Amino acid sequence: MIEIKEVASKKDLKLFATYPLILYKDCPYYVPSLRMDEMNTFDPKKNFSLKECDAKGFLAYKDGELVGRIAGIINHKYNELSGGKYIRFSRFECIDDIEVFNALLGAVENYGKQHGMKVIHGPWGFNDTDREGMLTYGFNERATYATNYYYPYFCENMKKLGFDDESKWVEYRFKIPDKPYDRIEKLAEKLKDRLCVKDVSETMSIKAIVKKYGDSLFETLNDAYGKLDGYVPIEDRMKENVLGQFATICNPKYISVLVDKNEEVVAFGIVLPSICDTLIKHKGKLFPSGFVGVLKSIKNPTDLEMALIGVRSDYKNTGINSIILSKISKNVIDGGVNSIESNPMLETNYAIQAQWKFAESEIIKRRQTYKREIVYTRIKPI
């Protein structure tokens, strides 16, 4: 017998936040989310995305044993921008049991019905910096700080339940070159003067950059990513959540923030030190001892994850990204980094993928979202 229970107490929330640790206990490719982020999922005082969203969490029990979890998210801003009535499923983990799958996804559908939603799709998060997409290839590769791992049975069961393909992403591993790329170096030097831009990350701390250029950086982010699948503008206090995710683990050597003569951010690139080993060792908890490992990883990283790169629309096709790549690649080589992985890039985002044609790389993972129309049962009058 399968029972679905809504997350309604602190005990339920803790079970919701920690269930993936049970499911992936013996999986070497799984990387836990930050425990505090998971615990804050449904707290409007901590998760500022809830200003634009309604969300509920559900737990699945089979014969009294916890066997899965899922969250349902109605992002009103996304529905307004897309003109649709979508409910997202997120934080979806469960055992390989089609009945459990159906019960958890059904709980999200029923939640959507209560609000008049017409389509269920996911895995999507609250915004584009949240973990999204279900793994479909690369099951023997470790996840990153920003992505979820999934067992192969997940995508198989989605098909069995009649879900259709939606958005698709690829993830790359890049070969570290022995020396900087000459073509990129020469182009970067020319364009700095021609475009009248400067890289503030060369002279300012992360904290100072965030304080002075934070709002301008998010304007560029929203402009650069605004037309991509599932994207929701990051505004108001949602910025604090994103900065909490990324800014605290940035190393200035591996970021670039370009500003114009008006002191406005026109392009940026963020490559993060990998903190996966620490997250695995401490099961997603940073305190009391996990934070020491994070600080070591930030200061002297051996592995990096490409997080974000964005160019304001009026600077696209100018080659400005070469300035970003030149700075970061130099420090990658000088820092003795072992590997660089990209986080998901949309298959249809040809512009972002074209930026890496000069580098030797391979696709190591693929992921996607799924969608299905919500069926409203009509009861015939007697």
Topology at a glance:
Blueprint: E1 2-6, H1 10-23, H2 35-39, E2 53-62, E3 65-75, H3 76-82, E4 86-94, H4 98-114, E5 119-122, E6 134-137, H5 153-160, E7 164-174, H6 182-195, E8 198-199, H7 206-225, H8 238-246, E9 255-259, E10 265-273, H9 276-281, H10 290-299, E11 303-311, H11 321-334, E12 339-342, E13 345-346, H12 350-354, E14 361-373
Parallel strand pairs: 4-5, 11-12
Antiparallel strand pairs: 1-2, 2-3, 3-4, 5-14, 6-14, 7-12, 7-13, 7-14, 8-9, 9-10, 10-11
Helix pairs in contact: 6-11
Quick gist of this model?
By secondary structure, this protein is an alpha+beta fold.
Overview of this structure, please?
By secondary structure, the chain is an alpha+beta fold. Helix content is 34%, strand content 26%. The protein has twelve helices and 14 strands. The protein has helices spanning 10-23, 35-39, 76-82, 98-114, 153-160, 182-195, 206-225, 238-246, 276-281, 290-299, 321-334, 350-354; strands spanning 2-6, 53-62, 65-75, 86-94, 119-122, 134-137, 164-174, 198-199, 255-259, 265-273, 303-311, 339-342, 345-346, 361-373. Strands 1, 2, 3, 4, 5, 6, 7, 8, 9, 10, 11, 12, 13 and 14 form a 14-stranded mixed sheet that branches. Strand 9 and strand 10 form a beta hairpin. Helix 6 packs across helix 11.
